[in-house]
Design a protein that fits this description.
3 helices, 3 strands, alpha+beta, elongated
Length: 117
């Protein structure tokens, strides 16, 4: 804990610049009128990108570590969305009495549609 009384404590402002591969920071002292009066300290922290250089990525020689996971997740979502659209269309056609009643799950839909053929 700070042992100084509250009247003696200096006010300061912390500024952050958060980028993709770095974080820049600055601490600025404030005067009694809460105006910036002095730059106390600055710094920057750089992070490894986790992949090769940008030129390697552009040439297709390297990819981010999560690329395979992202692609698999994208495929799962795409399959789920397609199935959801089919369920909604099937329900809408049933509500409009254009298809017979039945469960909108994939097996029931297939059975109902095969009977219509």
């Amino acid at each position: 804990m700070d042992a100084k009384p509250e009247s003696q404590r200096k006010s300061y402002l912390l500024g952050l610049d958060i980028g993709v591969q770095s974080v820049g920071w600055a601490v600025i002292d404030l005067d009694d009128a809460e105006k910036p009066c002095r730059l106390r300290r600055t710094g920057v922290r750089c992070f490894d990108s986790g992949v090769g250089s940008e030129t390697q990525i552009e040439m297709g020689k390297d990819e981010p570590p999560g690329a395979k996971r992202r692609q698999a997740r994208q495929q799962r979502r795409q399959l789920w969305r397609r199935a959801q659209r089919q369920r909604r269309v099937f329900r809408a056609l049933q509500d409009a009495a254009l298809l017979p009643a039945g469960s909108p799950d994939a097996q029931s839909r297939d059975r109902i549609l095969r009977k219509l053929d």
